[in-house]
Amino acid sequence: MFVGWCLSWLFAFVAMRAKSVSSASMSAMLIMFPLTFLSNAFVPTETMPTAIRFFADNINPVSKAIAAVREILGNGTIGADFWLALAGSFVILAVFVPLTLLTYKRNA
Predict the structure, then answer these.
(1) How many domains does the chain have?
(2) Residue 80: left (phi > 0), alpha (psi -120 to 50), or beta?
(3) What residues make up the domain containing 67?
(4) What is the pTM of this model?
(5) Predicted local confidence at residue 43, as pLDDT
(6) CA separation (Å) from 53 to 50, 58, 92?
């Protein structure tokens, strides 16, 4: 839930910068589509091509969150993926909370 809340700041920023509701929706889909489908949500990353596997394993915060949830539910333990997902979420917050608030102030 925390990762989703952090990503909502990204989408709030995108929505504030958009000219219309439909362009905001389309922009959000263009962001969420690769984050979801280029992750380990549907297939193991070992079956992916090298470049996509690198993105899914090392950059994509959705992959880290999914791996963390699988480890917690499957093994009952908190591993490295949990901490990486948390760190990635804080990076997203550190970048997009100020940008969103600044954009909101300028639009208000």
Answers:
(1) 1
(2) alpha
(3) 2-41+50-107
(4) 0.82
(5) 92
(6) 5, 8, 21
Question: How many helices (H) and strands (E) in the chain?
Answer: 5, 0
Low-confidence ranges of the chain (pLDDT < 70): none
Q: How many residues does the chain have?
A: 108
* pLDDT value at residue 61: 87
Give the distance, in angstroms, between the CA of residue 50 and the centroid of all CA atoms in the same chain: 21
Rounded to whole angstroms, how far apart are CA atoms 21 and 98?
Answer: 22
pLDDT of residue 107: 84
Residue 70's identity, in one-letter code, is: R
**What gap in Å lies between CA 34 and CA 36, rounded to an integer?**
5
Six-digit token string for 43: 């297939």
Please give the structure tokens belonging to residue 51: 């470049």
Nearest alpha carbon to residue 70 among 92, 85, 49, 60? 85
